[in-house]
Amino acid sequence: MKRILITGAAGFLGSNLCDRFISAGYHVIGMDNLITGSMKNIEHLFKLKEFEFYHHDVSKFVSVPGPLDYILHFASPASPIDYLKIPIPTLKVGSLGTHNLLGLAVAKKSRILVASTSEVYGDPQVHPQNEDYWGNVNPVGPRGVYDEAKRFQEAMTMAYHNVHLIETRIIRIFNTYGPRMRLNDGRALPAFIGQALRGEDLTVFGDGSQTRSFCYVDDLVEGIYRLLLSDYFMPMNIGNPDEITIKEFAEEIIKLTGTSQKIVYKPLPQDDPKQRQPDITRAKKILGWEPKVSREEGLKKTLEYFKSLPKDELYKSTHL
Ligand code: UDP
């Protein structure tokens, strides 16, 4: 049985990855410091002998007993509100945490896949973004703590690949949504659905003309799985190219939830990217991957998940 360490295991993506690798027959070792993750996302796994969990901050030395075939580094705050609140842990998990896990990969001779992000492209001047674009990032702006940590992560991962000759994979993840997203993490989708379910107006930032391209979590997980098992070590975009303005997106949520609330406009946060759409030519060619779930279908499933949560979750504050 192959053994895989998944950091950020109690988070949105990490917990979905735990499920995927368990059903594919792996022994999964989850690790999380639970700053933004929730045990609720993985409690169903504790009864399985194929799953174990370490409550640990990967910014500190990481030790795991026994052999390790694979490491997936998915620990990091990932919403702008979160990393504005905890900028230093965000910088540390992307830099020191990545360094520790690369060291572990050398020691265990594991293949390691690190979760990078479309944020490495910053507020992009190239559209759509392909992997050869170097980005437009403000290092000292509010998003710099996340963007630069992830850029450092990529540089460090390539250096370990070149110096220690370990097997590395780098995925650049574009906006992703689905069950287990935190309702109060400040991102557009949970914010809009939460507001609609509470009977509040939907807060669109700026004039809502900025664009994003939303990928359903099952599609993303499939892309990660294929990239890990491929032999491709350069960065790979995984995301859904179906681009939409944030205003149109809010209107879709209004329609989907049937709320009678309307859109209200709030100031655009600093350095908010104006447009974002992945060029997935590389993933199509090398992994034979492309997203399968339409936004209509994905949003329905996500709404069902949010509706199934205890009602008081809807009223929890956004504070970490
Ligand atoms: N956004 C918004 N209202 C909200 C939350 C977010 O209009 O209540 C906007 C945000 O300014 C951005 C887009 O929605 O332009 C996506 O934001 P999100 O935080 O989901 O992700 P990111 O900016 O990291 O892509």
Compact summary:
This protein is α/β, with parallel strands linked by helices and 320 residues long.
What's the layout of helices and strands?
Layout: E1 3-7, H1 12-23, E2 27-32, E3 51-55, E4 70-73, H2 80-85, H3 87-108, E5 111-117, H4 144-163, E6 168-173, E7 176-177, H5 188-198, E8 202-205, E9 211-213, E10 215-216, H6 217-229, E11 236-238, E12 243-245, H7 246-257, E13 263-266, H8 281-287, H9 295-308
Parallel strand pairs: 1-2, 1-4, 2-3, 4-5, 5-6, 6-11, 7-10, 8-13
Antiparallel strand pairs: 9-12
The structure holds uridine-5'-diphosphate (UDP).
CATH topology term of the largest domain: Rossmann fold
Structural class of the helices, strands and pairings?
alpha/beta
Report the strand count: 13
Which hetero ligands occur in this complex?
Answer: uridine-5'-diphosphate
Which CATH architecture of the largest domain is right? Answer: 3-Layer(aba) Sandwich
Question: How many helices?
Answer: 9
Shape: globular
Major sheet attributes: 7 strands, parallel
Overall pLDDT confidence? 97
Going across the major beta sheet, what is the strand order?
3-2-1-4-5-6-11
CATH class of the largest domain: Alpha Beta
Order of helices and strands: EHEEEHHEHEEHEEEHEEHEHH
Tell me what portion of residues adopts beta-strand conformation. 15-25%
- Counting copies of identical and different chains, the oligomeric state is single chain
- Termini distance? 37 Å
What is the CATH homology-level superfamily of the largest domain?
NAD(P)-binding Rossmann-like Domain
Write down the Rg: 19 Å
